[in-house]
Amino acid sequence: MDMKRDYYEDIQLLDSKVLWFWFLMLIAALVTLPFVTPKYYIYMANYMAINVIVTVGLNILVGYTGQISLGHAGFFAIGAYFTVLFMTGLHLPFLLALVLAALVAAFFGFILGLPALRLEGPYLAIATLGFGMAITQVIGRWQLFGGRMGLETPSLMFFGLDLATDTQRYFLIIPITFLMTLGARNLMKTRVGRAFIAIRDSDIAAETMGVNLTLYKTLAFAVSAFYTGIAGGLFAFVLGFISPSTFNFILSIYFLAFVIVGGLGSIFGSIMGGVVMTWLMLELDKVQELPYIGELLISFSENWMSVSGLPNVASIIFGLIIILLVVFEPLGLYGFWIRTKIYWKTWPF
Amino acid sequence: MFLQLIISGLSFGSLYALIALAMVIIYKTSEVPNFGQGEMAMISTFVAYSLLVSYNHSYALSFVGAFLFAAALGAFLEFAFLRRAKDPNILSLILITLGFEMVLYGVASWKWGADQRNLPFPVSDFDIINLGPAVISYLNIATLLITLMLMLLLFLFFRYTKVGIAMKATQQNAMAARINGIRTNRILSMTWAMSSIIGAVAGMLLAPIATLDPNLMLDPLLKGFASAVLGGMTTLVGAALGGYILGIIENLFGGYVSLEFKSIVAFGIIVLVLCFKPSGLFARHYVRKV
Amino acid sequence: MDGGNTTKDAFFSVKSLTMSFGGLMAVDNVNFEVKQGTIFSIIGPNGAGKTTIFNCISGLYVPDSGQILYQGENVTGLKPHRIAKKGIARTFQNIELFSRMTTMENLMLGRHIHMKTGPWSGATFHRRGSKAAREEIQHRERVEQIIDLLDLQSARDQFVGALPYGTQKLVELGRALALEPKLLLLDEPSAGMNSEEKQDLIFWVKDIQDELGVTILLIEHDMKMVMDISDRVLAINFGKPITEGVPEEVQRHPEVLKAYLGEDESIGHAA
Fold first, then answer.
1. DSSP 3-state assignment of B228?
2. 20 to 30 A Cα–Cα from A197, which one of A126, B60, B116, B193?
3. Of C22, C55, C60, the CB nearest to B287
4. How far apart are CA C31 and CA C28, in angstroms?
5. A265 in contact with C at a CB cutoff of 8 Å?
6. What contacts C133, CB < 8 A, 6 or more positions away?
7. Which residues of A are less than 8 Å from C79 in CB distance?
């Protein structure tokens, strides 16, 4: 038996012909999607991709390294604002501005990671909460960032092409998402990822086995912030306009919800979580347009609640999803996926 | 101006103290900071508003009704959700309280919308007394008095009543409490009910000076948490003191340094305290044997 | 100069180690010296301070006073990961495995200090030939050898949280071995094992000593095992050393007998 091939399979991404097939199908679907669906869905796909990047990034920190962050909207904001500012103020090309902005986010992630070395559980949660809100407050009041009015994103010039439509941006965003997700998956399968998981499961043992906690905990924060920063930068262009009210505490909770729904500690879960929750978020925005439920809700609103407040149903549903998932299926969609697979495998034929 | 800032600081400090107390009460027994507590307070305040304005009940009835609602809400949340968590690690518990937060925020926004309202209150913020160069409003006085009274009641409650002592026992060692015949589940529900009522008091004292909308408690929640962190999340007295200290520092900062960035003080405090003395200024630091 | 048998070139020595927790003296002036390639056991009743000594050596605690010298170097108070890098590994009394990783992955973490892959190369490996992939494969081969040595093949790809207790203890041993230590601290490795497993364990510990040349510090309650494999033994109680010497001497020492069993019983009967 070829020993080398044996071990490589352990870490290889696609270790069977079947997986390769589905993988190529996925790529084909992604490539052809914009040509066969209405424009709105391309916007949705872009949004989904961005949320997948955030979810993966946050999962690295929370799911794999076992930390908590209630302030990731802050990194998202940093990515968005700094990308725009680097482009408009320093006239940097898009890709460079994006990466630099993400590095700024990573730097702040590192800073946030420092107190995290001594804090755990609720204290860490509150510290990250404070951080996230502080960022929003500072951005909201500093004229450099456009203050309360926000900033308009410039046109997205990519190697001379002006990517002005959702479809054009799609072909930039999807590959970036793809690469970053792949990168995260690889990272988790190698030395650094193992160190992260070790910190989660037993940081004492990890340390006595040679893992430098200071280095790796701050690294986890920094990597997670980097991912979120990239997503933020892309987000600025999908939206066209950024203002501080977008990057609030609720957004941080939404990000956490994405991770939980998808499944802690699973890249695949993060993809599912990001996709499903974005879809849900966008659908619930127009909840009154749903076939039966919409009318039901409208009449209910008229009698008991306020009709104008109807979109807040989204908040209620999200909250319930979080609670129910945590209570019943902490492994999220990934957990469901595994259970379904096992169920089908043991189906008596 | 200094005196005015102090007065204002004490007034807000009372509110922060109340929120901090509410939070510490739950933290000590359920071991989770209740991130939903702001919205619990907010929705109870809205219930008071509803009873007062839509149904035209008296102050007494409306406020009592709101408190009953708050108690029921708190007990229900603990009983129905928190208790059922399959995996009681801190992240799960925090997420559940965040879930409460979102649901309650959604319900309140749906029912009452984003219109800004004003909560009628028996004591007005506009009736003032002159204290030398500064003014203090009736509402300020009422806030201070009510908070102090509440703190005194809590002190007596925990010291002298059966239930209060049972709560302390549950917090220190749930297993031992159970063995001694304490119904810990009921105690937990009661703890949440109590915390919810205190939060509702804070909400109702805040509403007359702020505008009553679903965002009422978002900022104060964080300040309350900051106070608890400052004073010590495991001590009631510490948390309350933390509230007053934060209120005063924040106001002084706003008056002398920058009004714009006043809110950042709370976060700055959180970061500083957590970096240097995570257990808080007044909490006893227990050395745990690893 | 400083009392006892301290020689300049002792492989590992602990001098006047003292550690207290808020008034409680957990370790009180403990001294011992270990020659390279030997097995040195520490025995004593529960709560005598044995694990505390280990924790001081590992760097988890910073002792109040005293010195820990390893290969002539003062390693007192160094952070745990630095201690690990110097080649000191340990197992824990209450298992501290990474419960949501497989056996293989747990052992691979033992290779952490011998690997170099960082975040960038880790994220970007894309084929066999890349640096990260080659390193992974190379170290997996090493880990496989340990799995073979300890008979852990059946547990290789299982989550360690689901393994039986005795197997978990072996995985912890394997993880410590994966670090390629020169000094190995074993904290009650046979606790919870049945007699068959204990036999195997004795075998393996001796193997580790003979074939891998590892120096071993052992905390054990199983006296038979201690007498069987130790080169020297230190007995402590209430944090204070009682006596130190070859197993037969320590076994007969009256204070030691009293500490364990009261008067008039020989330890040889305890198992």
1. helix
2. A126
3. C22
4. 9
5. yes
6. A8, A11, C125, C127
7. 207, 212
A241 neighbors A133 (Cβ within 8 angstroms): no
Is the pLDDT at B196 greater than 50, yes or no?
A: yes
DSSP string, C83-121: HHHTTEEE--SS----TTSBHHHHHHHHTGGG----HHH
Query: What is the amino acid identity at position C248?
Result: E
To test the contact with chain B by mutation, choose from A247, A327, A331 the residue with the greatest count of B C-beta atoms within 10 A, namely A327
Chains sharing 3 or more CB pairs under 8 A with chain B: A, C
Would an 8 Å CB–CB cutoff place B288 in contact with chain C?
no
Give the SS3 label for residue C4: coil
Residues of C whose CB is below 8 A from B289: 21
Q: Please tell me the number of Cα atoms within 13 Å of C239 on its side-chain side.
A: 15
Q: Find, among A112, C227, C181, A274, the residue nearest to B270 by Cα.
A: A112
* Nearest residue in C to A4, CA atom: C137
Q: In the predicted model, what is the mean pLDDT of residues B222-229?
A: 88
Q: How many angstroms separate the Cα of A228 from the Cα of each of A114, A127, A253?
A: 18, 18, 14
**Strand runs labelled E in chain B:** 128-131, 134-137
CA distances from B42 to A213, A313, B216 (A): 41, 17, 6
- Determine the pLDDT at residue B57: 79
Residues from chain A that touch B85, judged by Cβ atoms under 8 A, are: 326-327
Query: How many beta-carbon contacts under 8 Å exist across A and C?
Result: 121
pLDDT, tens digit, for every residue of A262-302? 988 899 999 999 999 999 888 887 776 777 777 777 777 77
Q: Is A204 helix (H, G, I), strand (E, B) or coil?
A: helix
Interface of B with C in 101-160 (CB under 8 A): none
| Calpha distance A229→A180 (Å, rounded) | 12
Question: How many C-alpha atoms does C75 have within 13 Å on its Cβ side?
Answer: 26
Min Cα distance B87 → chain C (Å) is 15
Looking at CA atoms only, how far is residue A179 from chain B in angstroms? 29
Beta bridge partners of C235: C43, C243
CA C20 to chain CA centroid, nearest Å: 22
What residues have CB less than 8 Å from B94, skipping those under 6 apart?
A68, A70, A122, A125, B32, B33, B35
Kind of pairing, strands C183-187 and C215-219? parallel
What's the average model confidence in pLDDT over B271-290?
66
CA distance A344 to A279: 27
A95 touches chain C (CB under 8 A): no
CB B38 within 8 A of CB B218: yes
β pairing state of C232-237 and C240-245: antiparallel
pTM: 0.88
Among B33, B35, B87, select the one facing A330 at the smallest CB separation.
B87
Interface of C with B (CB under 8 A): 21-22, 55, 60-61
Residues 6+ apart with CB under 8 A from B286: none
Number of other residues whose CB lies within 10 A of the CB of residue B209: 17
